[in-house]
């Protein structure tokens, strides 16, 4: 884990409320693993005081990328940063997704809803590098909610899209799409990130099909490093159910350990 107070915004791209940032921050980029996150300080002043958690969308030796949707004041301020602006980031944090070993030839499915697609690009790239066979299911309410589908295609990663209103790809929920595909074939593992109702439904579907799954949970986070207890979630452990800090023990958990609200 590193604090990079002099990280720089190298490239920025926007689609309405969605933004992709490429950030020069070598210490974070070098260490990052898929599913980990960073805490970003969005303002030099006191409002908002707390850093905001954002998943690592991609990373290499030069730095890392973010893909985020404006949700409130903090992400709004972040979205207004300009190329060349300084950023203060803490990371990489948390425990990410498990890459199967051996990965070669293994069919793996990645399911992202809306901004939940963010960590799955990095994961898909790493899985492809490990010679697994990733298929990405990318769902949104409308075609405007799935703006980075071209990135997966350009990276040569198989992609199946869905929209609730049928404006692009499969018409319906991404969970219905995955459920339909699970009736035809079976991956070694399903990875997911998205809104809680999507992940809860997907947990039930994968459990019914007997397919292992990992889910990246979200919570409001005060510190990101285990100090504030602001991010607890009820998790099933060997010694019984317990409240655990998502920022330290997660954000990624196996489906069978999560007690959905
Ligand atoms: C580990 C982790 C990784 C994340 N990765 C991404 C990402 O890659 N891209 C992305 O767009 N977002 C991501 N988020 C969500 C992001 O952190 C929140 O949208 C952001 O903190 C909101 O801050 P804000 O100041 O803009 O909004 P605020 O004004 O703080 O809140 C606006 C609204 O969003 C709700 N909210 C705030 N934080 C969260 C949260 N963590 N989960 C759910 N609802 C929240 C608030 O209750 C409120 O209703 C991630 C969250 C976590 C915990
Ligand atoms: S965010 Fe502070 S303990 Fe997890």
Task: Provide an overview of this structure.
The protein has helices at 26-31, 73-79, 118-129, 149-154, 174-182, 196-209, 246-249, and strands at residues 2-15, 18-24, 37-41, 52-55, 58-60, 63-69, 86-93, 107-113, 133-140, 158-163, 170-171, 189-193, 213-216, 232-237, 240-245, 252-254. A seven-stranded antiparallel sheet has the order 4-3-7-1-2-6-5. A seven-stranded mixed sheet has the order 11-10-9-8-12-13-16, sandwiched between helices. The protein has three domains: 2-93, Translation factors (Elongation Factor Tu (Ef-tu), domain 3, Beta Barrel); 97-212, Rossmann fold, CATH 3.40.50; 217-261, Dihydroorotate dehydrogenase, electron transfer subunit (Dihydroorotate dehydrogenase B (pyrk subunit), domain 3, Ribbon), CATH 2.10.240. It is built from seven helices and 16 strands. Helix content is 22%, strand content 36%. The chain binds flavin-adenine dinucleotide (FAD) and FE2/S2 (inorganic) cluster (FES). The site of FE2/S2 (inorganic) cluster (FES) has 12 residues, from loops.
Cofactors, ions and other ligands in the entry: flavin-adenine dinucleotide, FE2/S2 (inorganic) cluster
Assigned CATH architecture of the largest domain: 3-Layer(aba) Sandwich
Question: What is the H level of CATH, i.e. the homologous superfamily of the largest domain?
Answer: Nucleotide-binding domain of ferredoxin-NADP reductase (FNR) module
Number of separate structural domains: 3
Question: Alpha-carbon distance between the termini?
Answer: 31 Å
Low-confidence stretches: none
The residue fraction in helices comes out at 10-25%
> Helix tally?
7
């Amino acid at each position: 884990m590193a604090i990079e107070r002099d990280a720089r915004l190298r490239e920025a791209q926007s689609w309405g409320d969605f933004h992709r940032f490429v950030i020069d921050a070598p210490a974070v980029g070098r260490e990052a693993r898929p599913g980990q996150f960073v805490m970003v300080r969005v303002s030099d002043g006191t409002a908002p005081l707390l850093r905001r958690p954002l998943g690592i969308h991609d990373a290499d030796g030069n730095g890392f990328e973010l893909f985020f949707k404006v949700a409130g004041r903090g992400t709004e301020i972040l979205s207004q940063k300009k190329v060349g602006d300084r950023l203060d980031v803490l990371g990489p944090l948390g425990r990410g997704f498990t890459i199967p070993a051996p990965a070669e030839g293994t069919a793996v499915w990645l399911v992202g809803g809306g901004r939940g697609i963010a960590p799955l690009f990095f994961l898909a790239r790493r899985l492809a590098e490990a010679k697994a066979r990733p298929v990405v299911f990318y769902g949104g309410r409308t075609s405007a909610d799935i703006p980075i589908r071209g990135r997966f295609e350009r990276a040569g990663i198989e992609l199946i899209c869905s929209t609730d209103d049928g404006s692009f790809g499969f018409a319906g929920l991404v969970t219905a799409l995955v459920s339909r595909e699970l009736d035809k074939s079976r991956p070694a593992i399903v990875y997911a990130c998205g809104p809680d109702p999507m992940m809860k439904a997907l947990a039930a579907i994968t459990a019914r099909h007997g397919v292992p799954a990992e889910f990246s949970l979200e919570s409001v986070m005060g510190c990101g490093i285990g100090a504030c207890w602001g991010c607890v979630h009820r998790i099933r452990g060997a010694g019984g159910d317990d409240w655990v800090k998502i920022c330290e023990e997660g954000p990624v958990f196996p489906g069978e350990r999560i007690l959905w609200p």
